[in-house]
From TrEMBL:
Transmembrane spans: 5-22, 28-48
Domain CD-NTase-associated protein 16 NUDIX: 73-274
Official protein name in the record: CD-NTase-associated protein 16 NUDIX domain-containing protein
Top-rank taxon, per record: Bacteria
Keywords from the named record: Membrane, Transmembrane, Transmembrane helix
Native source organism of the sequence: Flavobacterium macrobrachii
Length: 281
């Protein structure tokens, strides 16, 4: 961002100096140098960024615009498990919001990463949600908009950060928030990575901040014993902590068309994970 400002100001200064303060012999060279600097800024810097990020051109433009305004963007980087038994998906009650969602949560910032985030991206902690207990040092943080694309690129390289997805599964279903599944049958889990859902830069309702949410979507691949235990859990039915929802109920965010009422709220990111696609509604 500072590079852009310096090039722009220097280009304008050269044009003004060439036009008003130098002899006629030097005028074309000085003005031409200023114009070339502005062209370099426009084409080699801005256009190059857009070309190399053509699949996310609107994201790049928005981040650059907010960067010029010295705005911050809140990032929340998570992973979600699609645990399907027969035709229903396992949902758990959110700790922070009055809705149900897929099993999973935010990646954890490990010890060696904190200084890197501050030094390379000027990141600071998210003050909107509590950061104690199980949520301490989650990947919910604020990054200057000028560094947003650089942060996303670094995060998606999966280097120097947590990449295991076992922790949230263990905390939400085996020991921690809920003791739903047995340690005997679930000493580990297998899963396939399905895709990643990244939202555009958007306003957070009620928080007066810009944010980008990202979710890595995983499909649980249970062993025969794990599958049997999950089927037994399905037969026991819904509880206050867990719900079983089919595709139609998730896509309507908890509103049952058959009963014509909302059974319970389902987080919109659960719908995104099911469809591997962000949507406004």
């Amino acid at each position: 961002m500072i590079r852009y400002i310096i090039k722009f100001c220097l280009g304008i200064i050269l044009i003004i100096v060439g036009y008003y303060f130098v002899s006629d012999n030097l005028q074309p060279e000085i003005i031409g140098a200023g114009i070339l600097l502005l062209v370099d800024l426009l084409i080699l810097d801005v256009f190059y960024d857009l070309i190399t990020n053509q699949k996310r051109v609107f994201l790049v433009l928005k981040c650059k615009y907010l960067g010029f305004k010295n705005q911050y963007i809140r990032f929340s980087m998570s992973y979600l498990y699609r645990i399907k038994v027969k035709d229903k998906y396992l949902l758990v009650k959110s700790s922070n919001f009055p809705h149900y969602q897929l099993v999973g949560g935010k990646y954890k910032r490990l010890k060696g990463t904190q200084s890197l985030l501050r030094k390379e991206f000027e990141a600071k902690d998210d003050a909107k949600l509590a950061t104690s207990g199980l949520m301490k040092h989650d990947y919910a943080l604020y990054v200057p908009a000028k560094n947003a694309i650089k942060f996303l690129d670094w995060f998606n390289k999966r280097q120097d950060r947590e990449i295991s997805h076992w922790r949230e599964f263990y905390e939400e279903l085996i020991a921690g928030k809920g003791e739903i599944l047995s340690r005997e049958n679930f000493p580990y889990v297998n899963y396939n990575y399905v895709g990643t859902v990244t939202t555009p830069v958007k306003r957070t309702p009620g928080w007066d901040t810009y944010e980008i949410l990202q979710y890595d979507i995983l499909d649980l691949i249970p062993t025969p014993k794990q599958e049997n235990e999950l089927e037994e859990l399905l037969e026991k039915g819904d509880t206050e902590y867990i719900k079983w929802a089919d595709v139609e109920l998730i896509n309507s965010l908890g509103h049952c068309k058959r009963e014509q009422k909302q059974l319970y709220k389902i987080g919109e990111h659960t719908k995104w994970a099911l469809n591997i696609k962000w949507s406004k509604d």
